[in-house]
Amino acid sequence: GAPTCSNAKVVKIQASDMTLNSVWNGTSGALEPRTMVNDGTYIYVGPTGASTAPKVEKVLVSNMTTVGTWTGASGEVIREIDYDGGVLYVGVENPLPKVYRVDASTMSTNGTWSGVDGQEDVYSMDYFNGSIYVLAYYQSPPKLTKIDAGTMATVGNFTGPSGNWTTTVLAGSPYIYLGMDSPSYNSVYVLRSSDLSLAYSYGSTWPNWYGDHITNLVVSGGYLYALGLSNPMDVVKLQINSGTPVPNNSNNIILTRNNSSPYWTSVNITVNSTQVAWYQPNTMVLGTTLPDRSGPVQNGIITWGTNPSGIEIYFGSFLALFFWF
Predict the structure, then answer these.
(1) What is the 3-state secondary structure (H, E, C) of the chain?
(2) pLDDT band at residue 283, thresholds of 50, 70 and 90?
(3) Using one digit for the tens of pLDDT, what is the confidence trace for 161-182?
(4) What are the phi and psi torsion angles at 40 (to 5°)?
(5) What is the spatial distance between Cα 47 and Cα 51, in angstroms, rounded to a whole number?
(6) Residue 151 to residues 111, 136, 172: CA-CA distances in angstroms?
(7) Of 189, 160, 201, 194, whose CA–CA distance to 174 is shortest?
């Protein structure tokens, strides 16, 4: 049968020879420590299967003893813990998703974020650069919520395609990576961290791994590794776009500045292989408007330069002459 235990355990292993060093035993009744973080001096263990109120136990690494405890509300289940700069972010199921901000020195709550109806619990969570990114449990259409870690207020959302759901999030800059599942395939969505807009996606034709989902994402050396929960397990290695992305903005695009090109016959601008502007006049340009011949009109503005000293150009009327012999 399946192994059982009466309380959570953390095993400390010597990395040099992979031998057992010591074991920490948690509070009785607090099972399945699926999430754990460390700050170099302490580890913070959050059992998911606590039968009463959930606890995060602060353990001194040097001797593997408990030196502090944070306790949540009765009925909650801890899903994720993140740590940054002396602060813990504890994601729980309640049944709506909730994130506690906890002072790691005192193990006391000093801020809370709560989800909305339609979200079941915190399924995956990641902290990066002052923001917390939360995925609700198997919500479809999937939704990623961005939280300001200072105010614990929602500052952005991304909603994916209906019929899909997200299973894991990896936060970073300039991108946020989402493991995305559907009944027939797995994929990774890549969002811009600045505004949570979709940059691109990988794997829309990957077969669904044994009917299960992407459980973990790791970025290393210019590659993204996606771990699939399957039998046997699969890891997909993806090349990350090495180019520097340009966030969506309203800045002007300036062509042939500072005599960079004496002339050009046409300019075609595309984004993700979609034409967004086409400048190739097929009628005489009189004035400063450069017509856009693509679908959504975005006319350019010509800034006429000046002639070199001693050169002048005059335009007068033209007379058509015809000769017969």
Answers:
(1) CCCCCCEEEEEEEECCCCEEEEEEEEEECCCCCCEEEECCCEEEEECCCCCCCCEEEEEECCCCEEEEEEECCCCCEEEEEEEECCEEEEEEECCCEEEEEEECCCCEEEEEEECCCCCCEEEEEEEECCEEEEEECCCCCCEEEEEECCCCEEEEEEECCCCCEEEEEEECCCEEEEEEECCCEEEEEEEECCCCCEEEEEEEEEECCCCCCEEEEEEECCEEEEEECCCCCEEEEEECCCCCCCCCCCCCCCCCHHHCCCCCCCEEEEECCEEEEEECCCCCCCCCEECCCCCCCCCEECCCCCCCCCCCCCCCCCCCCCCCC
(2) confident
(3) 777 777 788 888 888 888 877 6
(4) 100, -30
(5) 10
(6) 8, 20, 20
(7) 194
Can you give the C-alpha Rg of the chain in angstroms?
29
What is the rounded distance in angstroms from the CA atom of residue 51 to the CA atom of residue 149? 29
β-bridge mates for residue 78, sequence order:
92
- Find tokens 């059992």 and name the residue: 47
At 261-272, the pLDDT tens digits run: 556 777 877 765
Contact call for residues 177 and 187 (beta carbons, < 8 A):
no
